[in-house]
Amino acid sequence: MLFVAFGALVLVPLLTGLNPNVALFTAGLGTLIFQIITKGKVPIFLASSFAFIAPIIYGVKTWGIPGTLCGLVAAGIIYILLSFLVRWQGDAIIKRVLPPVVTGPVIMVIGLILAPVAVQMTMGKSGDIAVFPQTQSMIVGLCSLGVTVLVSILGRGMLKLIPILCGIVVGYILSLFFGFVDFSPVTNAAWFSVPEFTFPEWNPEAIFYIVPIAIAPAIEHFGDVMAISEVEEKDYLKEPGIKNTMLGDGVATCVACLLGGPPNTTYSEVTGAVALTKVFNPGIMTWASIAAILLAFVGKLGGLLRTIPMPVMGGIMLLLFGAIMVVGLNTLVKSQENLMEARNLSIVSLILIFGIGGMSISAGQFHLQGIGLAGILGVLLNLFLPMPPKSEGE
Q1: What domain count does the chain have?
Q2: Does residue 88 sit within a domain?
């Protein structure tokens, strides 16, 4: 289970500047916390969330890692508050406040905002600076992408569940051939060391920027719990209940970000592994969590992960960020809402344009833009725009 989750788990810290050993530790610890809160009933593994890649990258550049972590902890608190809202009002309240016409386009914005980052990295660039030769970088990046796509389509059994890992391995081998790999992080790292934990610093600006982004993975959490329910043919939405699974996710995210790790989320790759192996015992996730925590203390592993060249990760990101956008699009399609109806058209179009266009609002130290602004705008429009009058016979 850990092997299936490993590629995506470590990719987020590598892309955002966080420590991969800390991410391993917080994924393991977060999963254990989730199991305690859900009484060990759900075979789910929690690890790094892709939804927060864009805000973490922006936050690290703007406020540094400690300031960004403050906003990420606040996002975990939002999960916790949503879990209490569900406990008070029932599951339906989430769907009323966060319907598909809001969550779908917000998820799309997350993927589309990240697109230029993926393209730049595939071309071997960091901003306007060429770190690697462009032609060779694109060979490495596009080969990594091609292998990831082919394995996800043609792979069988366990192989189909690790397309990211396969793409990284092939891209890494090509990078060795082109001389892109610098092994100094491995040689300088100790075999065994305590992960380099980083602690948050109070930053209200980061909180206002990151908190609205929590609405997208909160809705994805529903989908993941429903998926594992269908796989095992048990209704986990009722027992232990979405109120407890979301609480577990929220507490796990808060603890992870308090230690310098990325926010946690339920991993659909692991749900796929559960479906493939028919191993429904949640105790397996306990052992996977313990293994992740132990690996976090292997300094050489973190050093090796840091040697993965930029074009390799860029190639993988081309698919991942596109996939995030498609998840949002699919959310809209499955809702079967009439997007040409004036109310829905206004909500979806404004979320997309405000988010992708870079609209920003500032007042003193308060600053809101991008995904955060798009998320808040969507929630407010959904709450305050009047519903269309029903036609006769409805």
Answers
A1: 1
A2: yes
Query: Does residue 364 sit within a domain?
Result: no
Quote the domain boundaries for residue 300: 2-338
Residue 24 CA to residue 296 CA, distance in Å, equals 5
pLDDT confidence of 351, banded at 50, 70, 90?
very high
Nearest to 54, CA basis, from 262, 359, 310: 262
Residue 353 falls inside a structural domain: no
Domain membership of residue 301 (yes or no) is: yes
Which two structure tokens, joined as six digits, stand for 185? 């992080």
pLDDT > 60? residue 130: yes
Looking at 93-102, 182-191, 295-304, which range is the least confident one?
A: 93-102
**For 269-288, what is each residue's pLDDT tens digit?**
787 778 777 878 888 899 99
What is residue 365's predicted lDDT score, i.e. its pLDDT?
64
Q: What local confidence, expressed as pLDDT, does residue 140 receive?
A: 93
Cβ atoms 274, 4 nearer than 8 A: no
Pick from 349, 370, 351: which is nearest to 361 by CA? 370
